Amino acid sequence: xxxxxxxxxxxxxxxxxxxxxxxxxxxxxxxxxxxxxxxxxxxxxxxxxxxxxxxxxxxxxxxxxxxxxxxxxxxxxxxxxxxxxxxxxxxxxxxxxxxxxxxxxxxxxxxxxxxxxxxxxxxxxxxxxxxxxxxxxxxxxxxxxxxxxxxxxxxxxxxxxxxxxxxxxxxxxxxxxxxxxxxxxxxxxxxxxxxxxxxxxxxxxxxxxxxxxxxxxxxxxxxxxxxxxxxxxxxxxxxxxxxxxxxxxxxxxxxxxxxxxxxxxxxxxxxxxxxxxxxxxxxxxxxxxxxxxxxxxxxxxxxxxxxxxxxxxxxxxxxxxxxxxxxxxxxxxxxxxxxxxxxxxxxxxxxxxxxxxxxxxxxxxxxxxxx
Length: 371
Ligand code: SF4
Ligand code: SF4
Prior knowledge:
alpha+beta, Alpha-Beta Plaits, four-stranded mixed sheet, three-stranded antiparallel sheet, globular, binds iron/sulfur cluster
């Protein structure tokens, strides 16, 4: 095992291969606060990539209802329990990652879900926990939230490390993790090792498959289908720089590194996942801290008290099909540019509003304006 630096856990950790970051890293930010659980993302992915024979239970994108839902069922409960104590001290993870906690002879700590656990992609949909007849702020007594999940195109992928055929590779040009279908031997080691359970086995072909980050679109500077179709405009896809090369004018860098308002999912697993979440404001903090690490409280504070630049970046979500490389806010609008420096969208920072007169002379009627 080699020693690699994982900035999400603030320390070096063990990994099978030497660390080598790609030229740029595919990444996305999902704002959980905006998701309405409509599953449009799920269906747009399915109708694009997994509509064929043997892919019936293959959901590269899924949206599950926390705390009870999961696809496959209990995926996170099980690995969290296996991992044992997980603690943080001053932003440094002091427990073990799945690579450090591996049993003898294995590459990573993992498990194979049972068949029935893959059957229900949205079990416990909209089921809250707790019960209270009143709603209290800032944290609700009974709560649930939607967790949108795709492959994280991890910096240190467990799927890749565990593959005995070396069929999984991480692209140098954009950090997208792919499975070579000609090399895959169907050993399912990736399914066992990925703690997010985002590598899936297809019985019909005897190969494993996973989210490909819509790379044919990304190569052309177009965002993936799940991002493009998101009704709630909760998703922003782009490229992330490592912390020592932060570009504050890159919206993903800004959200992840500068404002630290978007956090990785279960950073303690040790994979440096590259999908980042803005945590939901109404959920008990200890639950969120276990899920997104120690930055939760500060992230929620920032999301609640938006400064003008953060507000400007959040306005860009869901506004263009092009991948945004840079943004520039002014007092009235925010302008976004692609990797070639071309302007792709210009969004007003003010919602145009029109207050109608209480009495309409033309139709001789009264109108009420909702505040
Ligand atoms: S989320 Fe899983 S399948 Fe995706 S790159 Fe990471 S380890 Fe591999
Ligand atoms: S399309 Fe967007 S709003 Fe709808 S479930 Fe997916 S992430 Fe949530």
